[in-house]
């Protein structure tokens, strides 16, 4: 849990507790949540967290369920990994990300996705989105080359799906895919969506939040564009704990902690917030290096209209002049970090092949 799960202004680290019986499966036994311990007997926690094992061993699911309960030894405080707009990670700056993906789009589906975002992971991550009606109106925000959209159109009519991304080079790849020919494809900003309020039945965003300078603003926009009862499904990275992976993650792009996702969704006004952990099968549940696609977060919009969260104007300046030497330095550092995260899944795959099954890697 994060500050969203406790009274305003309070904080502590996520704690370890035994959850109630899983809300997904009747036959699940209580499991331990991976949180850290702090006494917060004076705090009220308005939502309980529950989780269960999903289809990938080692990747449990977290649920923020309704009900006001008081816990005496567990809470949370998350130090936010967001940064001011003046100090973005490399691809959290939209101009720099534009040029970075100008080149990466060439190999994205063939080099990047196989190590971080497989078809099996996509199906697993989209399952909580309840894309079970062909007539649903769906927006895929940060849809890029359309890899996630291809999972959406398996059950939803492509003519009802809109792909939005800030990169014209990524979208050019999406336009080439036969199963996406009937989709509407738009250039746009995840933090300022070109859709009316109460527009869509489903909001999906996969592999995009890591580029947002202000993730809370993007999730607030997700709330706004959904109809009452609509569901948002955001699939994104999780923060690493291993020191070298953490260094490269923090200079490259946003790797949120799980409790931050819960905080952002809850502050935006979403109800029934849930987190489902995902990851490549060959990682065997290992999360210390972080995951570029590590969780699927869902929430339901309980009321019509805009989000109850009030925010000021956007702070990011994407039109101002930039220092070319600073840009080059950040570009090279970003390339180095991305190369590291290309090698991590290869390293984990080799360990999976060498270490006997059933043993930790």
TrEMBL record:
Pfam families: Methyltransf_11 (PF08241). The chain crosses the membrane at residues 327-350. SUPFAM superfamilies: S-adenosyl-L-methionine-dependent methyltransferases. Keywords: Membrane, Transmembrane, Transmembrane helix. GO terms for molecular function: 2-methyl-6-phytyl-1,4-benzoquinone methyltransferase activity. GO terms for biological process: methylation. Residues 89-298 form the MPBQ/MBSQ family SAM-binding methyltransferase profile domain. The keyword Transmembrane applies. This is MPBQ/MBSQ family SAM-binding methyltransferase profile domain-containing protein. It comes from Ceratopteris richardii.
């Amino acid at each position: 849990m994060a500050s969203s799960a406790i009274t305003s202004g309070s904080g502590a680290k996520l704690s370890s507790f035994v959850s109630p019986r899983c809300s997904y499966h009747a036959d699940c036994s209580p499991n331990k949540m991976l949180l850290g311990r702090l006494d917060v007997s004076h705090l009220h926690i308005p939502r309980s967290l529950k989780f269960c094992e999903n289809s990938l061993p080692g990747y449990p699911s977290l649920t923020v369920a309704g009900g006001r309960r008081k816990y005496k030894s567990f809470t949370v405080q998350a130090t936010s990994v967001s940064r001011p707009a003046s100090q973005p990670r490399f691809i959290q700056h939209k101009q720099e990300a534009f040029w970075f993906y100008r080149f990466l789009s060439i190999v994205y589906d063939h080099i990047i996705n196989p190590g971080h975002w497989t078809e099996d992971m996509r199906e697993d991550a989209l399952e909580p989105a309840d894309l079970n009606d062909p007539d649903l109106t769906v927006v895929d925000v940060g849809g890029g080359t359309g890899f996630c959209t291809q999972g959406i159109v398996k059950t939803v009519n492509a003519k009802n799906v809109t792909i939005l991304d800030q990169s014209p080079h990524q979208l050019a790849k999406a336009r080439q895919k036969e199963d996406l020919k009937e989709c509407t494809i738009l250039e746009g900003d995840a933090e300022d969506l070109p859709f009316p309020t109460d527009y869509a039945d489903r909001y999906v965003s996969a592999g995009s939040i890591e580029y947002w300078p202000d993730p809370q603003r993007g999730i607030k926009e997700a709330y706004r564009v959904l109809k009452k009862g609509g569901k948002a499904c955001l699939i994104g990275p999780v923060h690493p704990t291993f020191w070298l992976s953490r260094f490269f993650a923090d200079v490259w792009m946003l790797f949120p902690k799980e409790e931050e996702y819960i905080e952002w969704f809850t502050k935006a006004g979403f109800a029934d917030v849930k987190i489902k952990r995902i990851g490549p099968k060959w990682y065997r549940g290992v999360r210390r290096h972080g995951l570029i696609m590590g969780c699927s977060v869902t929430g339901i919009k309980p009321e019509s209209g805009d989000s109850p969260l009030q925010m000021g104007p956007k702070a990011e300046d994407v039109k101002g002049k930039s220092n070319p030497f600073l840009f080059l330095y950040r570009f090279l550092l970003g390339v180095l970090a991305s190369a590291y995260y290309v090698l991590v899944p290869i390293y984990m795959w080799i360990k999976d092949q060498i270490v006997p099954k059933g043993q930790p890697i």
